[in-house]
Amino acid sequence: MVEQAVIQQEILDIEDYIVALRRHFHKHPEVSLKEFNTIQRIREELEEIGLPYVNVGETGVLATLTGGKGPGKTLLLRADIDALPMDDRTGAEYASVNPGVNHACGHDGHASALLGAVRVLKAHQEAFTGTILIAFQPAEEIGAGARQFVRGGFVDDVDHVFGIHLSSRHPVGTIIATPGPSNASCDIFKIVVHGKSGHVSNPDLGRDALVSAAAIVTELQTIVSRETKPSDEVVVGIGVLRAGTNYNIIANEAVIEGTVRTFDPDVRAQVLEAVERIARLTAEAHRTSIEFSNYDAAAPLINDVRAAEHAFQAAKKIVGAENIITDAPKSMGADDFADFLAVVPGIYCFVGTQSGESTAFNHHHEQFDIDEKGLLIAAELHVTYALDYLANPF
């Protein structure tokens, strides 16, 4: 077994490497499924480290590190790599140079921390049994990346999965390892309301898609309060309502886009049925019609209980038991790491990156930034969890 002090020192020795990579990725962000330059840089790093890899889709990679002590379990480590379609207003020297694209969720840090961890794991290749697969995954932000690995059969022989997300809600030096449900499912629905144009001075001759859509948005708010149990954890949120072309024209079309979040598959199905039913019947009441579509972006993220205990023991070596949170509130935010956990047991941990005002902005904020010391903790956690699991798999 590799001593923890050795791992810590080796991570510290490559701090400049990890930070420089993170700043490079932050400065050159790319949105979901367009991460061409990002994945090319990752391929170059893997080649320099000496790891074979296969491409997954156009912008994903799966590398392999085989232990020198013979066959054993297969563990997959994952980092997502895509950025968000929003401006970067950090004012940092490494701020995005790509207008309207920003690593405002920390995926730049995820990729760089995992690459740092891979360097250390490679150095100890002869010390462990089994195989470590390293997934650099695109398109987490649109729920389209993890399923490329799952549906492509790349995790069919995997015994365990592990992932890390940085967290600006928690101070540097803390690790969150929560058993059971952690993040909600995510469905993204779209309702197109069809009406009939006309002059607003003759409302009886038209079918107002705008008024119909407004009524639908209002009625959808009753699902949580009237169609689900008070104990159910459900969000029905509307983020888009577009309608109309001019002040004196009855709108002949309106578009509603929203999301459903929950932790229970049965409740999820119930709520989605209610969204479509209420939208359709409300539209009919206004003499309009709808087209309903839904995109299944992510399953509920449910951590394995034994994996959570394993993560606790690994994290304790790094930050001490007093700095580990095992009862964090569940989040209605989704992450498609859930697609891995739906087929392979494992855990998704969070690592704190907040150390002051500049690093306290919430994820998806234009000024989101991290204390880069958190990257070292994330890298060490990847290494420690992997080596401990392969030495004592369960």
UniProtKB/TrEMBL annotation:
<keyword id="KW-0220">Diaminopimelate biosynthesis</keyword>
<feature type="binding site">
    <location>
        <position position="107"/>
    </location>
    <ligand>
        <name>Mn(2+)</name>
    </ligand>
</feature>
<dbReference type="InterPro" id="IPR011650">
    <property type="entry name" value="Peptidase_M20_dimer"/>
</dbReference>
<protein>
    <submittedName>
        <fullName>Amidohydrolase</fullName>
    </submittedName>
</protein>
<keyword id="KW-0457">Lysine biosynthesis</keyword>
<keyword id="KW-0464">Manganese</keyword>
<feature type="binding site">
    <location>
        <position position="364"/>
    </location>
    <ligand>
        <name>Mn(2+)</name>
    </ligand>
</feature>
<keyword id="KW-0378">Hydrolase</keyword>
<dbReference type="GO" id="GO:0046872">
    <property type="term" value="F:metal ion binding"/>
</dbReference>
<dbReference type="InterPro" id="IPR017439">
    <property type="entry name" value="Amidohydrolase"/>
</dbReference>
<dbReference type="GO" id="GO:0050118">
    <property type="term" value="F:N-acetyldiaminopimelate deacetylase activity"/>
</dbReference>
<keyword id="KW-0028">Amino-acid biosynthesis</keyword>
<feature type="binding site">
    <location>
        <position position="165"/>
    </location>
    <ligand>
        <name>Mn(2+)</name>
    </ligand>
</feature>
<feature type="domain" description="Peptidase M20 dimerisation">
    <location>
        <begin position="189"/>
        <end position="281"/>
    </location>
</feature>
<dbReference type="Pfam" id="PF01546">
    <property type="entry name" value="Peptidase_M20"/>
</dbReference>
<dbReference type="Pfam" id="PF07687">
    <property type="entry name" value="M20_dimer"/>
</dbReference>
<dbReference type="GO" id="GO:0009085">
    <property type="term" value="P:lysine biosynthetic process"/>
</dbReference>
<dbReference type="GO" id="GO:0019877">
    <property type="term" value="P:diaminopimelate biosynthetic process"/>
</dbReference>
<feature type="binding site">
    <location>
        <position position="105"/>
    </location>
    <ligand>
        <name>Mn(2+)</name>
    </ligand>
</feature>
<keyword id="KW-0479">Metal-binding</keyword>
<dbReference type="InterPro" id="IPR002933">
    <property type="entry name" value="Peptidase_M20"/>
</dbReference>
<dbReference type="InterPro" id="IPR036264">
    <property type="entry name" value="Bact_exopeptidase_dim_dom"/>
</dbReference>
<feature type="binding site">
    <location>
        <position position="141"/>
    </location>
    <ligand>
        <name>Mn(2+)</name>
    </ligand>
</feature>
